[in-house]
Specification:
Length: 394
């Protein structure tokens, strides 16, 4: 009965620019099995916790760190010198580095998992691409990216950085994971869910199958542009939520920022050419809610400390970890200006971070805005997504 009802239910008339494409072009090696060789690039909080997750699932994991002492210490003690220092890591992980692995090593891998902050991805992919030496006949490892940001200067999403450095076919095969997932909770095997997306659905399914465990559920989708934008944008709104809490505002104000932030994210994504529905998923509202409401978030913490009156420079130099929202706010500002989308909260975060605006002034200006309709989705011009698709040869 329920199935009949669902079948009869009309599909939403909205279709994103990207969702009109369907791809079936498996370009990576066959589905990694239970003893896949996985190279995790980036031994920060997230790279380490994902390496541990895969090591516990009986995969053979190599964790690349750019710091020789980290590699040495890890292989002797099964602990990381700096991140998640209490944790005893899986015996199935070997640390490698500090140089990036060469061609033979890379081609022996079933999976390359990139947990490198967005601003450093281009330089590393440029070097790795020389070793990967991809031509039409190369069977790629499965490629997974988990960073959440927009590149400063180019305003590029990761999909575009991959296309620029490794070529369109590699970008089409790349898969992306995003969603509410603090490293320190994954490492404790707390129930967690994420979104997985790719331009090539078969590749996204491989990533889902690789990661899916009873304590780590993966939901697959086909809007990687929306998923990437959601992950990058939520970091900017987490800074806003932290700022509000730091200023001493309470629950009403945080709920307002989360909800209006979601409306802004959805409008930006729609104008960009992504599906608005992606922002209702784990990578959108799920991660927005998480990072806007927890002091475990680095981005929230940056905002909180700004609200308490600390300077951005002091916060960044003492945070001890990356807060992607700080650099991403620049790209977001350029994108909303270009698209002509109204995103006043993101604008005010940018003003506080880069133009020295007082946090109280930013809040007052937001509250002084004239009344408006609650949600006016912009027309789906899809300019940036269309440009990106052309770059990917689609
Ligand atoms: N920590 C989390 O809970 C979490 C969850 C989901 C997604 N992410 C995303 O994962 C990415 C990595 O975050 P993280 O938490 O591991 O960051 P982190 O601050 O814990 O670690 C950053 C890592 O980047 C490395 N790094 C710095 N400069 C580099 C360079 N030039 N080239 C290569 N590597 C360099 C550092 O050595 C370090 O290993 C970010 O985009 C973040 O948004 C993090
Ligand atoms: O600590 P943050 O603010 O970078 O957030 C980490 C993750 O993105 C949470 O999903």
């Amino acid at each position: 009965m329920l199935a009949t009802r669902v079948a009869r239910h009309r599909r939403p008339s909205f279709r994103s620019f990207t969702s009109t494409f369907r791809f079936t072009m498996p370009t990576s090696k066959p589905q990694p099995d239970s003893e896949s060789k996985v190279l995790v690039l980036g031994a920060g909080n997230f790279g380490c916790c994902l390496a541990d997750h895969l090591g516990d699932s009986e995969h053979r994991v190599y964790l690349w760190s750019r710091e020789a002492e980290v590699v040495k210490h890890f292989n002797i003690h099964r602990k990381h010198l700096k991140y998640l220092p209490e944790h005893n890591f899986s015996k199935n992980i070997t640390a490698v580095g500090p140089e990036l692995p060469g061609a033979d090593f890379l081609h022996g891998m079933d999976v390359l998992l990139f947990a490198i902050p967005t601003q450093f991805l281009r330089e590393n992919l440029t070097i790795l691409n020389r070793s990967l030496n991809i031509d039409g006949n190369t069977k790629l490892p499965l490629l997974i990216f988990v960073n959440k940001g927009i590149e400063v200067g180019t305003n590029a999403l990761t999909l575009e950085i991959i296309a620029d450095t490794c070529g369109a076919s590699v970008a089409r095969a790349a898969t992306f994971i995003s969603g509410p997932s603090f490293a320190k909770e994954i490492i404790l095997r707390r129930p967690t869910s994420v979104s997985v997306a790719s331009m090539t659905e078969a590749e996204a399914n491989k990533t889902t199958n690789l990661f899916h465990e009873p304590h780590f559920r993966c939901y697959t989708g086909s809007d990687p542009i929306g998923l990437e934008l959601a992950g990058a944008l939520k970091n900017v709104y987490a800074i806003a939520a932290g700022m509000s809490d730091g200023l001493g505002y309470e629950n009403n104000t945080r709920a307002m920022i989360i909800t209006r932030g979601l409306a802004e994210m959805t409008c930006i994504g729609t104008a960009y050419g992504a599906s608005p529905l992606t922002f209702l998923g784990l990578a959108g509202v799920g991660d927005l809610f998480l990072t806007c409401s927890s002091s475990s978030s680095r981005n929230y913490t940056v905002g909180y400390r700004l609200g308490k009156g600390e300077s951005l420079q002091t916060i960044i130099s003492t945070l001890g970890s990356v807060a992607e929202g700080v650099s991403t706010a620049k790209g977001v500002k350029t994108i909303i200006d270009k698209l002509g989308v109204s995103a006043p909260i993101a604008e005010q975060v940018y003003e506080v971070l880069y133009n020295g605006k007082e946090t109280q002034t930013a809040v007052r200006e937001l509250m002084d805005m004239p009344p408006s309709r609650e949600l006016d989705l912009p027309p789906q011009a899809g300019g940036p997504a269309r440009q990106l698709m052309l770059k990917l040869g689609l």
